[in-house]
Amino acid sequence: MFTADKSREIRALVKPPFTALFLYGSYARGDAEETSDVDILQVTAVHTAPYAVGRLNVTCYTGDQLLRLARSGGLFARHLVEEALPIVDPQDLLGMLKSAYVPPRSYQDVRNRVCGCAPLLDVEERQFNENAKGLSALVSYLVRTHLYASAFDQGARSFAMPHVLNLLGKDEARVILSAVRQHNYQAFVAARKLFEQLTDVKCHRTEGSLEAFIVNASAHNDLALILGLRLLARGRPFTYDVLQELDL
Amino acid sequence: MTLDDRVTFIGDIHGDAARLSGLLAKVADPNRRLVFLGDYIDHGPNSREVVEILLETAKRQPDTIFLAGNHEIGLLAFLSGKLSFLEYAWLGGLPSIRSYLRRANRDVRSELTVAIPSAHFEFLSNCKPFYETAHFVASHAGINPAFPDSREFAVTVLGRHPSLFRDDVRLVKLVVCGHYRQLTQRPFVSGCVICLNTGCGTTGGPATALLYPEMIFAQN
Fold first, then answer.
1. What is the biggest distance separating any 2 CA atoms in chain B, rounded to whole angstroms?
2. Whole-angstrom Cα distance, residue A136 to residue A208?
3. What is the distance between the alpha carbons of residues A208 and A230, in angstroms, rounded to a whole number?
4. What does the DSSP 8-state code read for residue B102?
């Protein structure tokens, strides 16, 4: 239940300045579990890096960026227009996003870009241990994005993962997605196998380094470029401008 | 009349070879000095081709001035190991790498070092930090209005001086610069500052030239 107390609590934790604040994800839907993160969208006047405060995951976008994403019908925009709850929204940005949102005919393009990221998951245990958190988050993001894209093409009505998995007949994936948050190699390997089953793509990198893969992939896959650079950055502040221009 | 009495300044190109070629065709005049304001590479798809065009231009008009932009310095810093792969990628360098390498295999820096023709490397290394006459000072990032006499590399090539664009800025000489992207895709013109970065190669804007002292602008 999203209460006035919860709203005040979030406002106190978020780093100003902001022009609007929204809650989205499981807490906005009302199906959060004990371990769920609280997903917050902070609308800012200028590009701002995402950050975390306790269980709060704060994603920052400018209003113009959000309107662009809404017009192109990206998954993130869909997330917002279908689920977001305003915490602070004096100019009714959410209303503007809903008016601007145009759903795509298909999410095939999103799935193609996700498949193109498969080589990023081609790591052995030693490499995994050097960036366990980043690689666990990566495989989770890729699997979830592929699942959402497939589910909405098959008529899904919500981003609630149990609903998505049930629709796709993949209920067993829930345990795998939950385990990957433990950041251990076995859980990562299980999630990578799930990714390969879903996409029918092997996680194999032909280039001899992550840098070389990023160079080659950047010509045609903006998602592989950004996620590859994030892996290289390993948690350091990431300010590449195109990060928030991705239409996903 | 000397060459410096009639100058054609050309703003940021950022790997857009087609716009550069078109602009050069529009403003071609062997009786004027060409002054390029830097940022020839990165962001756009054809950095290698842009450098080729500039080298041909230098052959045709040997008195052409090529100023250094922060992106030329960025590529040189990546090649020498002063900038990491990640930092050069942040700067917008991946399209430049791809323009020289058909395919990256393992050690991107070493492969790029081998792939860049020596003439290109020399060109990038020999770009000037600023160019000044009795009437104007031209540099990629302009000058710092708070210290108008400083011509330090960190100021004219790598600096960032937003105060150049304030209404109340007063300078003794005309400052002609690039670097500061004009979202209007039109050149910025005030009494003492002209900026010719109109988004070529970055936001899809045109390449822009200024014919001085006539103060005629050309775009392509």
1. 55
2. 22
3. 18
4. S
Q: How many CB atoms lie within 10 A of CB B36?
A: 29
- Calpha distance B121→B119 (Å, rounded): 5
Answer yes or no: are the C-beta atoms of A1 and A31 closer than 8 Å.
Answer: no
Could you report the per-residue pLDDT of B26-60, keeping only the tens digit for each?
A: 999 999 999 999 999 999 999 999 999 999 999 99
What pLDDT, in 10s, does the model give residues A34-79?
888 899 999 999 888 888 898 899 999 999 999 999 999 989 999 9
Residue A167: CA count within 13 A, CB half-sphere: 18
Q: Between A and B, how many residue pairs show a Cβ–Cβ distance under 8 A?
A: 44
Tokens 């981003």, residue?
Answer: A159
Question: Which residues in chain B have Cβ-Cβ distances shorter than 8 Å to A212?
Answer: 104-108, 111
**How close B107 gets to chain A, by Cα (Å)?**
7
Nearest CA in chain B to A213: B104
- Asked if the Cβ–Cβ distance from B108 to A215 is below 8 Å, we say yes
Residue A229 CA to residue A211 CA, distance in Å, equals 8
The pTM is what? 0.89
Q: How far apart are CA B96 and CA B33, in angstroms?
A: 28
